[in-house]
Specification:
By secondary structure, this protein is an alpha/beta fold. The chain has one domain: Alpha-Beta Barrel (TIM Barrel). It is built from 9 helices and 17 strands. The strands form 6 sheets. Strands 1, 2, 5, 8, 9, 12 and 15 form a 7-stranded mixed sheet that branches. Helix 4 links the parallel strand 1 and strand 2.
Length: 365
């Protein structure tokens, strides 16, 4: 009589069958892929390598600015993110994305638009949400009382729009030291700038030609005197009250500067350019990397400042007719680009001003 296989042999055979079974191999492969995807979906670490999962969401406000040591940085790529005009999407859409990547931003608030209910075809942010932004480490600064064209105002109205907006934020517990001109208007007007200088340390504008602001005025080789004004009282092109930025607008429209070249002097030739998500993403990449030619050998000479307004949930910007819209998926992709490429994202309050050299600097320890 033949001997029956031992229980040990039966068990080994069963294990071998299971291991070579294609179904089980496929299951193992699927599980491995799932584990890899789950790891990639974990909360990103910040640029220093520490986890943000709880710290970013529970961080409390501080009276002193966050500090950065440029000399010990692994790269010299910096960027500043701004949001203008007190939209509710600052809190509901922008903040979760910023939290996701461990970034902080500066929010320039129009005082009388907060809790206005509805302005600029969008829902207004509330004081409660502005306070929540600050409590999470965001920078809160003033953007006038009513968003007017400052260059058209009387001195009394300038003091109200510029000075009272500082007081308005202070009345709600925010220490305001940096101003932003609505639409960039007034940064080249001595009366406006002199009024801003009475109340603020720095001011941000928008030249619409570049995203870069140079820490020292001669960074673009066009200016050597970094004072706010020349001896005759005229404003210098680049100074502490004309910090440059780039507005993230997917529709550019206006009048051509070359309308007189064809003999049609005095008449404005209007233009309108529209960009979809893919095109705006490329413009964003160009803007944030425009610093590369200036920032070398560990020295930061220029920083791009990107200004957003409303975050919307359209699939693509081709669905929007409002120039200041940015889709949520595009904003996420742009912040991911900064994170993946090692940019240090700082706020406007991380900029200081050296009165001796008359130049900006990134605050250090």
């Amino acid at each position: 009589m033949k001997r029956q296989p031992s229980l040990f042999i039966v068990i080994v055979a069963a294990i071998i069958i299971m291991l070579v079974n294609p179904y089980n191999i496929a299951q193992f492969s699927t599980a491995a892929r799932s584990h890899h995807i789950q790891n990639r979906m974990k909360t990103p670490t910040d640029l220093s390598g520490s986890s943000n999962s709880n710290h970013r969401l529970s961080s409390s406000s501080s009276s002193s600015p966050r500090q950065f040591d440029i000399s010990s940085s692994n790269n010299d790529k910096f960027v500043i993110i701004n949001f203008d005009d007190s939209h509710e999407s600052d809190y509901t859409y922008a903040k979760p994305v910023l939290d996701k990547y461990g970034f902080k931003a500066t929010f320039f608030e129009v005082c009388n638009w907060i809790e206005a209910g509805y302005h600029d075809k969008d829902i207004s942010i509330t004081w409660e949400h502005v306070a929540a932004l600050q409590q999470d480490g965001m920078d809160i600064e003033p953007h006038t009382m009513n968003h007017p064209h400052l260059s058209k105002l009387s001195q009394a109205d300038l003091d109200y729009e510029i000075g009272q907006s500082k007081q308005c934020l202070e009345n709600h517990g925010f220490n305001a030291t940096i101003f932003a001109y609505p639409g960039g208007d007034g940064a080249d007007n001595p009366k406006v700038v002199n009024t801003v200088a009475k109340y603020y340390d720095l001011a941000r504008t928008d030249t619409k030609s570049s995203a870069l602001t140079f820490l020292h005025c001669d960074g673009n080789n066009e200016q050597t005197d970094c004072s706010t004004s020349f001896s005759d009282g005229t404003l210098t092109p680049s100074n502490r009250y004309s910090i440059n930025s780039w507005a993230h607008r997917h529709i550019d429209e206006g009048c051509s500067d070359n309308s007189a070249d064809d003999g049609d002097a005095g008449n404005c030739k209007s233009f309108r350019y529209e960009y979809d998500n893919a095109q705006m993403f490329e413009k964003f990449i160009t803007a944030v990397n425009s610093q590369n030619v200036y920032n070398k050998d560990g020295l930061v000479r220029a920083i791009p400042i990107i200004v957003y307004h409303t975050i919307v949930t359209y699939p693509d910007l081709s669905d929007s007719n409002r120039p200041i819209d940015t889709t949520l998926n595009l904003f996420d992709a742009e912040m991911k680009y900064l994170y993946d490429n090692g940019f240090k994202v700082i706020t406007m309050s991380d900029l200081g001003y050296d009165t001796n050299s008359k130049s900006l600097y990134v605050k250090g320890p």
